[in-house]
Amino acid sequence: MTTPQQSIDNTLEVYFTDIFKKHEYRLYTLVSHLTKSDQYAKDVVQEVFLKLWIQRSNLHTIDNIEAWLYKLTENRVIDFLKKTASERKLRDALWINIHHMAGDAEETISSKEYNKIIDKAIDQLPPQRKRIYRLSKEDGLNYNEMARHLNFSRKTINNYFLKASVYLKNLIIKD
């Protein structure tokens, strides 16, 4: 013999099953269309009906079950779209940072390679040109300071520096 509570539970279960059969496919189709995600559509529909199942004893208080289901589904889809939008922004920001970091690394490698080529070319200069070029580029001395430091005329410094620069330019362009 069934108790009154068992009878109510059986009635609620039948009612729930009818609601599920009537609305499950339409809700799934709606969510799938809006989110373009089969898996998310299945998850949302499951969450909606789980919430309905949990509240099955209060089904009699819901005036319009279809509106209730669609409103709950709509809220879940909005949550999904917000989350997706924020994840997309985060992914885009990360991509930009990774791309920027890769560019920086590439520039650093290129810069290091370029500096190696320059250093190798400078080492091939005759001793006086090499010394004057390094005093100018590495120590930051101007022609007058180098002339005083080396006890050369400014014109000699200019001549050595010009020849060193032309030689380096030609050597680097050749490489």
Please characterize this protein's 3D structure.
- The chain is mostly helical and 175 residues long.
- It folds into two domains: 4-94, Rna Polymerase Sigma Factor, Chain: A; 124-174, Orthogonal Bundle (Arc Repressor Mutant, subunit A), CATH 1.10.10.
- Helix content is 85%, strand content 0%.
- Helix 1 runs antiparallel to helix 2 and helix 5 packs across helix 6.
- The mean pLDDT is 79.
Quick rundown:
The protein has six helices and no strands. By secondary structure, it is mainly alpha-helical.
Architecture blueprint of SSEs:
Elements: H1 4-35, H2 38-54, H3 65-123, H4 127-137, H5 143-150, H6 154-174
Helix pairs in contact: 1-2, 1-3, 2-3, 3-6, 4-6, 5-6
Distance between the termini: 98 Å
Query: How large is the share of residues in beta strands?
Result: under 5%
Q: Counting H and I runs of at least 4 residues, what is the number of helices?
A: 6
Using the coordinates above, name the CATH class of the largest domain. Answer: Mainly Alpha
Record keyword descriptors for this entry:
2 domains, 175 residues, mainly alpha, Rna Polymerase Sigma Factor, Chain: A, Arc Repressor Mutant, subunit A
